[in-house]
Every structure is written in C-alpha cells, then in structure tokens.
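Support case: user asked for a sample of complex input and structure output to validate their parser. Sending the pair below.
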Amino acid sequence: MGWLLNFSFATSGIIAGGVALVASPIIIHLINRLRYRRVRFAAMEFLLESQQKNRRRVLIEQLLLLLLRILIVLALALLVARLIVGADQLAMFAGVKTHHVVVLDDSASMQDSWEEEVDGQIKRVNGFDKAKSVVSAIANEGSRLPGSQQLTVLLLSRPKQPLFDREDVNEDFLTELKTKLDNQQPTHRTFALEDGLDAARKFVKEDETGIRHVHVVSDFRRGDWLDSQAISDAVLALDKEDASINLVRTIPARHENLAITDVQGEFHLAVAEVPIEVTVKVRNDGEKTAKDVRLSVFVDGQKTPGSESIQAVEPGETESHSFYVWFGTGGMHEFEVRLEGDDFTPDDRRFVAVEVAEKRRVLIVDGDFGQGREVIGADFLKLALVPEDTGFEPLVQSPDFLRKNPLDPFTTIYMVNVGPLERDAVKPLEEYVAEGGGLVWFLGSQLDSAFYTDTLYGVDQVGEKPGLFPVPLKPGRRELQHLAGAQTPPDVKFTKHPIFAGLFEGDAYILAPFVNVWEYVAVDQSRKLVDENGEPALDGDGRPVVWQKDDNQRRDGVTTIATLRNGEPFAFEHGFGEGRIVTFLTTAGPEWNNWTKMPPSYVPTIAETQARVARTDRVPERRLAGEPIPFDLDAALYETEGRYSTPDVDLGTQKLLLSVEQDNAAEGGARLRRTFGVRDETDLLGVYRFTLPRQAGTAEQRWVAVNAPVEEGQLTLATDDDIERRMGQDVDYHLQAAGNFGWIKGGDEGDTDVHRVLLALLVVLLVCEQLLAWRLSFHSQTAGATR
Amino acid sequence: MSDGYRRFLRPEELSRIGKLEVRARHIVEGFLSGMHRSPYFGQSIEFAQHREYVPGDDTRRIDWKAWSKTDKYYLKLYEEETNLRTTLIVDVSESMQFGSGAMTKYEYGCTIAAALAYLLLRQQDAVSMVSFDDAIRSMVPARSKRNHLHALLATLDADAPKKKTDLHAILRYVAEEKTQKGMVVLISDLFAPRESVFKGLKLLRQRGHDVLVLHVMDDQELDFDYSGTTKFEGMEELGELVCDPRSLREGYLAAVEKFLAELRRFCSRNLVDFQTVRTSEHLDAALRHFMNHRIGMQQSVRN
C-alpha cells in the first residue's frame, strides 16, 4: 500500500480545483434541500405512511448516492489532473515546452547481451539496443505533442558533441533519429558518467525556460556507483539547475561473465622458433563457478592447434593459466587469446603485438677480455645464457666497447669483473639503462671499490636513489668463513625473488643449500650520508646517518634479494630510469664461489635474471580502447607520410599524415607529430599497424595492441540502494526499471494501469450512480403498471 | 363502438365548457351518438325480441303479424319498464379540490354526476343529488322531470370545502332519507377513515340499495411521478412533508395499492360496484361503467 503515499500529479494545478469540485454534490444536495416547490396534496396519508416506513432506507440511499457522486467527481478530477502513482512515474509529456536531455551510455558494458522474446521470436539483445529503444520511445511520445518537445542526445563517448542538439521532436525528426540511432554501436571503452552529467548540465543551463528532464540511460554498474564522489557532485549540480533527473536502467539483471584480465609473458624476449611462456589471467565476474573454461590462441589471426583450458574459476576469483607459444619467424606478430563460449565479448579477447627477433643480443663486458687473461666469468655466463637454443646471442667485449659502440641493439649488458671505467663509457651505459636496458653486475679481482662507490653508486644524500651501482662498497674483498658439518646453515640466503624462482619448490629451499661463497665484497655500512644541504645527516639522537642494511629504513629503491650467512648483503635489484639492474657481490665465474658448479642453480638463476632485466622498451605498446596513440618523431629521420591499418580489415591500409612542428625544446630539430585516435579511431579491439618510413629508405613498424578495459567486464548492477546512497537524500531523482516504458507514456498512456483503473472505477461509479438514481427515481413503466 | 366521438369527451376538451349543464349534455349526447342501437336500451316500453310460443303462454302476447307471415306462433317480448330512483352522492370536500391535470377531482366528479343526472333524467328516471364534505352541504330530492337537472346541479357548489370526517354518518343519513330502494352512486376519492366508509356503504347495501362507487383519483395520486425536492402540504389538515418524492414513490404506491385493494375487497364482498376513475380518463368511462351496471341490474331483473 506504499504506493498510495507515493503519488503526484502531472497537472497539479487542476487537482486543487478537482478537490474543490468534490464538495459540489454536497452543495447541490444542500441547495436542493433548501429550494423546493410546494404542492398541495390530497393523498398525504399514503405519502406519510411511505415516509414513515422508508425513512432509514431513504436516508442511506441518499447518502450513498451523494457518496457516489462525490467519488465520481473525485475520479474525474484525478483523471483530468492525471494522477501519477509511484515515484517511478513521471509526467514527461505534459504538453508544455519540455526539453529532454538524454545521456546515452555507450560504454563497453552496454554490450552485455541476453536472450528475450521479441515479436514472438527468441532474439539476443544487448543493453545498448535497449537504450536506443528508450530514446526512440521518448521521441515517439514527444512527437505526439509537436512543437512542445525538444530532444538532445549525448553519448558518453562524446558528451561535448551531441548526437542531437535541441531538435524539435516531430514526425520528420523520428526518421532522422532512427537513421542515426541505427548507426550507433556501443564502444569498447569505459567512460565517466559524471562527464555526461556535466555536459547535460550545460544544455540544461542554456535552456532555462520550460520543463527540463535529464534521462540517464545506462546499465548502472555497481563499480561505477560505489566510490564515485564525482557522480554525486555532478548529480547535485544538475539538481540545482532544477532539472528532473531520470535514471533509466537498460539491463534487467546481472549476467554471468568471464573476462581475460591480463596476458603476460616474455614477449620482450620473443625470438623466432623459441617458445616463450605466456600467462593468461581469467576472472569470473559471475555468480556461478565456471567450469572447463576454454581458451583459444591465435597467432596472426590463425588459430593455433589445440586449445588451453582452465578447470574451474570460482565466482569473483581470478585463475592464471600458463602455456608456451612460439613464433615461426622474426618480425611483428599479432598474438591473441580468446575466451570461448562467453556472452559478454569485449573482455573475451586480449591482443598482444609481439616483435619477434631473429636473435636477442646480449653484451658481456669482461674486465679480463683483451687483457691476455682468461675470461672465466664471461664464459660461464655465455654457457648459462645459451645452454641450448634460447635465442640469445652473447657478445663478449672489453669495457672499451662501451665507449665506441652503440648499446641499443643489446637486450642486456652483463658487467663482469670490470675495473674503473672511463667517463665516456659510464655515460652511454647510464643512457642505455635509463632508456630501458638491462644491466647485471658481477664483481671480481679487478674491482675498484672507490670507483664503484664514488662514481657508480655516487649517492650521499639521504633518500636519494643510487646510480648504476646499488651500494657503497668497502675496499677489498672479504672471505666468508667456511663451516664444516651437516647442520651448518647455507652460505647464501635467497629471498623468494623471481630471479631465484628456480631455487625453490613451493616454499622449500631445495637448491640454495648447495651454493657456497668463499669471497665477496662487503657493503660499506659505515658510509655517512649527508642531507639536502650537504651537511652530515643526523638522526633523531644526533648521531650521523649511515647506510642502512634494512631496505625499509634505507628507502633508496634498492631491494636486497639475497644475503650471506653472516648477514652481509649479497645481491640487489634496483631500477635506474626505465631500466633494471641486478647486482651480485661476487664473481660470475667460480673464482669466489661454487655457484657455477651447480648448474641446476646457476643456469636458471641467470635465465631468470636475463628475463627480468632484459629491456622492455622495445616491446610493442598495449593500449586501452579509445586511447589515442601519439607520434612524435624526429623530422630528420622520418618521412611525413606513413601508413596504417586498423583491425577492421575492410578499411585496408590508409595514409597517416604527420605534421611538421618546430620543437623549441629540442635543439633546432623539427618534429613530426600526430595523435592518432582523437576521433575514436582506436575503439576497435585488435592490433593497429603503423608503418613509419625513414628518410634512409627503411621503415619502422609500430604495432599497438588495443584491448577493452577490464573493469567493463564487472557486470554487477548497482542496486537501488547503492544508487540512492550515491545520489544522496537531497537529490530528487527517479529510477526506472529496465524494460519499463510506462513512465515515458506519461501523457495518455503513461500511468496506463493507474489511469485504466481510474477509468474503470469511474465507469463502475457512473453505472452504480445511474442504477441507484434509477432506483430512486420515477419510471413511466412502473407507473403504467399501476394504472 | 367507434372511438371517434371520444375526442369530444377528453377532460381537456370538456374543461373548456364552463357550464356544467352544457357539459353534461355534451357528454351524454356524444356518448349516445357513438353507440349502436342496443336491445337493452331505449324508451321504457320497447320491443325486445320474439320467442316461439309454448303451451301455457299468454295468447294475448302472440304476434299475429308474424303468424300471418310465417304461419308460426311467436310471442313478442318487451323490455320491462322500470322507474329507477338514483341518488348521486358527490364528494365536494377539500381533498377533491386536488388536480394535477385539466380537471380537479371535484370538477371531474361533478361532471360525472351531471352527465349521469342528464342521462337518467333523459330516461325519465328519478334522480336525487347529495353533496357533502364534513356534513351534507345540500340535497335535492328525486324527480324525473327533465328540468330537474338545473336544481340538481345547483347542489354541486363547492365554496369553502371542508375536511371529510364521518362518511358513515352521511351515508346513514342518505339511507334513512331514501326509504325506497334504488340506486346510489357515490362519487368520491374516499379519503376518509376506512371504517367510516365501509360502514356507510354496508348500511346502504343493507337497506337494499344498489350501490355504485365511482372512486375519483388524480393521476398524480395514482402514479406519484413528482420529482425534485418537494414540499407536500396536506389538504384536509394532514400535515406537510419535504422530501425527494422519487425516493418515497415506491412506498407511496404500495400504500395506495393497499388502499385500493382494501376498497375493492370490501366492495366485492358487499356487492358494491366499485370503479376507480382517473381524472385524465375520458368522461365516458364512468358513464359506460354506469351503463354496464344498469344493464346488469336489468338482466338480473329480467332473469
């Protein structure tokens, strides 16, 4: 019965008059009692007898008749005033000038589809189809009142470029609307609803006359509504403009969904004909356990034989599945993992553009190379990097190589037993790592602790990050005392860092106990640091701040990944620019340890180190749908016209024109710039292929994989309570259930049920009134019978 | 009987004729002119029919003319001459002043009385007239002369009518006054205490009078088709009532029907001829009823 308390009127002005009219039967009755005609009558005896007998009945009948007439007037007043029962009923089309601003959600989640009966046939429909139906229904209803209704349609993908801008709704407009709506498809992107609301507010603000309705037609996902203060603010701002806010759901219920949330692998190490491991993460956004989840793998659009499968994915959980994939040839390749048998498709496909090298070059700089000495460390590293055909091509060189040759072609540089370097060798090395190159340090007899500390580490200031070397070193090397006995702890304590993954089986420490270290270089833990003013840094107790062994206290971005039995740090990892550096405070060869004699431990560690530090800046980009792809090229190296192709193969190859811009920041060089995708060109999922011709006559291939944002796959709908919490108590809004179009037909057919009931009630009342009045009145037939 | 003449007997038409005497003549002449010749009607000694002679019949009544033509004996039968004494008792009380149509009940009643008187005098029957309200207002003794009509009609004056009280007393007076048996025609709405009415009529029957009651009722009294809020002011001091007449109609009609049923039942038991006459009906209705009654009387006499 709550609905009785929850009603309003389309024409509330009329209802006041209607209520006043309710009194009219009473007034007429009273007037009739006062105004009567006089009749001198002879047969009073019978009249008085009748009156005596029927006094009570007459009174009841008269009251009943009066009540019926009051109810008739009341029902008429309610009908004329167009009673609207329920908060979800809106008088949208009241015949006065009305501006409808529709914010149409065309985000990827609107592709959520389900089967329903349409015109007697089971068809698959999606949320966006339903949203278009809502817009059409609004326009259709508006066209019945030509001249008074205006429609603005905003897409969330382009809120500032309305699909329709204050169009008068009439028959001609309906045709145009249908054509344009038919061409609209949901995007693969995610959008902020508040942007649409803000844009709608602008239109509402510009049109201050008449009634203004803002219809937000969306699927209302829970994720969008839970934590978005911005939506609350936008709604509040809209409410202040005195526009009615109408939230229209298009999706009736949450549907099951599986999503590929990530595809990771050693794509940066991809070499022709060498398998790489790929890990796919599949999330279950549904409510039921997904069993036997099938994954198909495509390379360059061709399905690879067989299929991968995950046994089960529990609701809300993410399962990882790893498998190997290999590419037959070098060059650019398109890699795709596809989830089979899921209804919500945008997150079922994940693309990766892969640049497959014929060989991955690795530079090993050994201080002993070219000195007439045996290059032990480099040889062991070569063996560890290429135990079989791993696709790596190691090159052993002396430190001078760094000064004279470009380092870009190398995936990783190993520095083995290197002494002091020239400044012009350090600088290219720093640039190489800063741009994304990988660097691994091994020490040895040629170590110059002062150079390493002052030049390569080079940090004195508290909180500053180190240079190419992670720690300050003490001069000379230290011996680790050998302990005999079965119960002695291992010399090296490895952490569960990815580099050492091969040393563990689960949590068990299987291979590390067999690694012995005899000599190492100790970290200078007494090195005093200075503050930002160059003064010796002091702690709270006034003592000088020194290098701290604890990573959490030091906070310089260096992670200790292994320590020695005596507690001295042994191995580190730290970042430098875009690149990554791993440091071992021992030799790469067997001079100071027996590690190289433990191939099951050494080889996997070197392989994992290689995978971890190898440069990733050359890996083709991955972007989200709709994200623009910027180009900023050196005009001296590239041509102004490139070519590109999109995942839509029908479009073929098209020209990519780059504009020449003078770059004031760069020294004298002109730049070729272009931002691709500002007009939604990157909405399609797949790999976009750009060919950028160089002045030298070669061409650079730049492939970009575009995928749908994973959050769009979280299809849980916001409940009415979620929305109410977000909207707040002060905002007046209406929330329409999916599939309910009754609110649109607010004029004649809207509130249909209520009006039909009222109409039926009125008919019943009129019939009753007539029957009662007939019963109480004179009829000639009866009179004739008396004659 | 052709109905053409009846258009002259409509109350609407007759009400235009001011003088009662002329009105009565108009009705009766109109009524008679519309009738075919009737074997039961005419002058006092009139041939009725032939009957074959059977031994024992008075030979003086054999029609010799018929014998000469048919060679059979036929007796000539004649209507028996009767000198009927009729007393017309006319109610001129206040309630009779009610009328919703062209005529009030009083006017209608007087018209009937006048017409009957004219008809009877024309047949040379003796007619006396009594008018009454709360008591006998005037009374004219029985005469059969034609010029007696004027005297009869003079009694029907209804100046300052009063309420009926004791109809029994009035009828008893008439009964005692009319020692010779005859016919008594009571023209009234009978809005009086029922017992009183019944007692009076019974007394007349006990005295051997042939009683005919012409119960004059207005259309509205029978149909009660008033509508709208109405204040009914009772005649004959019966109070007043403001009401919606439609709501009381059913009960009213039931009460009227009960009243009429009581009257009919009483009259039927006591061999009183009773006829309710609407003031909207043609005036000959009452005359026809009277004639039928009279013929019934003659037949009973003849048989």
